[in-house]
Prior knowledge:
The complex is a heterodimer. Chain A is an alpha/beta fold. Chain A has a domain at about 45-65 and about 105-270: Rossmann fold (3-Layer(aba) Sandwich), CATH 3.40.50.300. Helix content of chain A is about 35%, strand content about 25%. Chain A has nine helices and twelve strands. Chain A has helices at about 60-65, 100-105, 125-135, 140-150, 170-180, 200-215, 225-230, 250-255, 260-270; strands spanning about 20-30, 35-45, 50, 75-80, 80-85, 85-90, 90-95, 110, 185-190, 220, 235-240, 245-250. A six-stranded mixed sheet of chain A has the order 8-9-10-3-11-12, sandwiched between helices. Chain A has a four-stranded antiparallel sheet with strand order 2-1-4-5, with helices on one face. The longest helix of chain A has 17 residues, at about 200-215. Chain B has a single domain, classed as MetI-like fold. Chain B has eight helices and no strands. In chain B, helix 4 (about 90-115) packs across helix 6 (about 130-160). The longest helix of chain B is centred in the first third of the chain and has 39 residues, at about 5-45. Chain B starts with 5 loop residues before the first helix and ends with a helix.
Amino acid sequence: MNAQYLSGFPLKLEGDPVPMVSFKKVTKSYGSLVVLDSLDLDIAEGEMVTIIGPSGSGKTTVLRMLMTLETINGGVIYVDGEPLTHMPSGNELVPANNRHLRRMRSKIGMCFQHFNLFPHMTALENCMEGPVHVLGLSKKEARERAEELLAMVGMADKRDQHPSRLSGGQQQRVAIARAMAMRPKVMLFDEVTSALDPEVIGEVTNVIRKLVAEHHLTMLMVTHQMGFAKDISDRVCFFYGGRIEEQGTPEELFGNPKRERTQQFLSAVKEAI
Amino acid sequence: MFDWRWDFTWEILPRLLAATGNTLLAAGLGYAIAVVLGLAFALAQRTPYRSVTVVVREAIEFIRSTPLVLQIFFVFYVGPQFGIRLSPWTAGMIAIGLHYAAYLSEVYRGGLESVPKGQWEAATSLNLSTARTYFRVIIPQALPPSLAGMGNYLVGIFKDTPMLSVIGVAELMHTANAIGSETYRFLEPYTLVGVIFLLISLPTAAGIRLFETWVRRKLGMV
């Protein structure tokens, strides 16, 4: 994965409180195209952070790197104080082995734009696969947990349906239940409403609202739903050209954006609506 | 001109039917080897170890680029020079199994590549192990698109079993040849062989299509 050995980065984050997620000088590029340019971003435990920005600004890459779906070219990501794709060896950080990666991944859950449910499994089976085969729960425990979560997302009556029989909004709600069944500390939502018909967006955003209200989860969300972002975020980051151009509370960012690019983006988005 | 003898036909039919059992056995065994080995070939080409990938890739290309009958001769007649003495059956099963494994691995490869990238990502996000990801998530989805190709090669291997007659496996063709050289009558034995092949191939092909639909339904993918 990351071939480089790093020194000069802490082996473990200390202090109180330690951020749940911390990007330190994280760089990502594809060839000569720099997607993320020395990103520094801390997310506190229980914080809900939304990333907005034009396409190609690197916002989805941030989530994908956290889920270890993308490698990083420079810097270190810490989750719960520990390096994510590196591990300590002596006094330096070396690329993580599979065991370390899997341990770290267990802290993170993700929901995708296109749901990515397993089409050959029912809603319930989708939610039980990880708990049984990764967490080692008994079938009975996993089933209870899955049923509880499917009820929470309002999908209890569809638990024996395969994804092909469900609407987009229903599939996304199952996907949220599936990710939650792994009891992650950090949840990532990658444009979870972008592939949905307008009339079903509400059923998904309502589930996320419920998660925010009822669970002490750290969440990182990429969305184009500005109203939704404004309602539920603790902090909004505006990405531009692989950097955080501006960040602040929803009131600050949406009500009184200071940077010109932020203003341009927000007014363009407003026009589109 | 057209001298078809029914009494002779009835006389040789039991012998040919007995040989059909051997033909089915050869096709079945050869296919079983090919199905498993082909999957191993397909998966081996996806390992991160480049040397493994290259060796398997080249072996598959080699097998696909040379005639089956040559491979059968090679295993049976050249093997003993290296101290590997095999019975006609064993040599035949190895040759035909390997041959079709090479073709089936390409079918599997296509099937595996047809599974959307998002499925891998979902499996990673749920922290599933690589083995679990393959056997529970990816392969079940790669199967339906592979079934048509797998079915073609099942019929194909069945129709290629006569090649085993060249090393003396007593299957249908071998028996028909034997009858011909004993009686100097070839019309009835060869015609019967053709009819028997047809009567088995056609329903098999239809059965495969039904099986394909059944699998898709079973996996909830229709």
